[in-house]
Amino acid sequence: MSLTARLAEIVGDGYVSTDPDVLHGRSVDHTGRYRGHASVLVRPGSADEVAAVLRACRVAGAYVTVQGGRTSLVAGTVPEHDDVLLSTERLRAVGEVDAVERKVSVGAGATLAEVQRAAAAAGLLFGVDLAARDSATVGGMASTNAGGLRTVRYGNMGEQVIGLDVALPDGTVLRRHSDVRMDNTGYDLASLFVGAEGTLGVITELDLRLYPLPSHRVTAICGFADLDALIDAGRIFRDMDGIAALELIDARASALTAEHVGVGAPVAGAWQLLIELAGDSDQTERLADALEDAGLTGEPAVGVDAVAQQRLWQVREALAEVLGVYGPPLKFDVSLPLSAISRFATGATNLAAEHSPDTIPVLFGHIGEGNLHLNLVRCALDGDAEHALYTAMMELIAQSGGNVSSEHGVGTRKRDYVAMSRSEADIAAMRAVKSAFDPTGFLNPAVLFG
Questions:
Q1: CA 443 from centroid of its chain's CA atoms
Q2: Which family is annotated (predicted)?
Q3: Which strand (E) or helix (H) includes residue 269?
């Protein structure tokens, strides 16, 4: 029996496809820059079916690339070996919210927006938020340990995952759940799969932590002429009780959003800082006090009611719509010490001008964690020229004391640069863990190690 026939036997004929057009559409990166090759798409409907698919592929000697919402920005879901594409899109169940224990069990294929709606209906909040909330799946977010817009308050995905089911490469299912908040019995296996980018197993279900919904919020956008002044303000706000969001926005970014989607910055300045405070009491005076000596270019734009707050958030979230207006941007997701951000911003601009003079460097991100997203818009380089710029930017990040990946993962795009952020001993230990779970290396073979 062929592998395709065996997969159809496991999941049903309607959930297996070898259609070239389908495979072509599923083999391109979200950025549009990277493309691979696949032999078959399979869409299992349960953890046991995922495990059976893995078992069949392992026996057949076939490579498997796991796909969720396919929002990876580092080619993390691009197959390189005529792989079997294993999609988690049918694992969409969202369980009943446990409002007492403040948690919910969801399938790995559920989107972030679906989880957020379930939490809100119960008067609670899920701690991670991304601009790609309508398409990003929580399984993929856990696999890359995604952060996002609320990380400064609630942390990354790893801090939200309190239990999970994982289909292992040997075709068994690990079910790690607990009814208690504190469970220190043996290895913390759940954390091993968070951030592993699908190289150790396929997450099929997650228990997610939820939080009380703050009764008061205040949002502001402040303009700064100087990036160092903005960073100094960021240091103050990131340590404040009640900080809910702290986002850096490059004025070049808001100029693009103003031109192409009609959403411009409400303040002047080369750099903008979006701040949100949340709590059980009015936060407006605390915000005003903290901004008193912040070195702003003018008065901040402040939103107290929900409509005004949403309008201010549009400045940040509209970026997703304009980044590809001149074609796929060249993206860098980096983590830097706050003291190095200004130097990096200057160096990155100079590198972009040197390698691609027409490029517009756009910088934004989560300043509280030093997690920034550099997008080179109108960057038409490809092949060796793109590789030269990418490598030079990675070297600049490493020289600045940063990590080559923060919340997007390594994927296939950054695997050649892992040694810039991890020692030989680190990499050897990670390879040993990979070998223990997946000795033949058939699961997500292009990701992380290649």
A1: 21
A2: Belongs to the FAD-binding oxidoreductase/transferase type 4 family.
A3: none
Amino acid at 293: D
Distance (Å, whole) CA 440 – CA 450: 13
Cα→Cα distances 212→69, 128, 151, 281, 339, Å: 27, 14, 16, 14, 34
Give CA–CA dist 400/414, Å, rounded.
Answer: 17
Three-state DSSP class for residue 347: helix
The interaxial angle of helices 227-238 and 284-291, nearest 10 deg, is 140
In 198-289, the DSSP E strands lie at 202-212, 216-224, 243-250, 271-279
Residues 25, 61, 80, CA angle at the centre, nearest 5°? Answer: 35
| Domain end marker among 54, 87, 120 | 87
Phi/psi zone of residue 190: left (φ > 0), alpha (ψ -120 to 50 degrees), beta? alpha
In the numeric block, which tokens belong to residue 87? 């999609």
**15 or 183: which carries more pLDDT confidence?**
15
Among 373, 324, 381, which Cα is nearest to 354's?
381
Q: CB-based contacts of 55: which residues, under 8 Å, 6+ apart?
A: 170, 171
Tokens of 320: 């997703």
107 and 205 share a domain? yes
CB 203 within 8 A of CB 443: no
Assessment of whether the complete model's pTM goes beyond 0.90? yes
Sheet strands side by side (includes 360-366): 301-303, 216-224, 271-279, 243-250, 360-366, 371-377, 330-335
- The set of residues, in sequence order, having a beta carbon less than 8 Å from that of 381 and lying 6+ positions away, is 330, 355, 356, 389
For residue 400, give the CATH number of its domain.
3.30.70.2740
Q: Give the whole-angstrom CA distance, residue 269 versus residue 253.
A: 12
Position 97 in a domain:
no
- Whether 179 maps to a domain, the answer reads yes
pLDDT above 80: residue 71: no
Summarize pLDDT for 279-302 with one digit per residue, the tens: 999 999 999 999 988 889 999 999
Q: Cα–Cα distance between 440 and 111 in angstroms, integer?
A: 31
Residue 250's region, left for phi above 0, alpha for psi from -120 to 50, else beta, is beta
| Site of tokens 């710029």 | 389
Residues 208 and 220 in one domain: no
Same domain membership, residue 342 and residue 248: no
Residue-range definition of the domain harbouring residue 17? 3-87
pLDDT in tens, 234-250: 999 999 999 999 999 99
Residue 216 near residue 279, CB atoms below 8 Å: yes
Beta bridge pairs of residue 98:
103
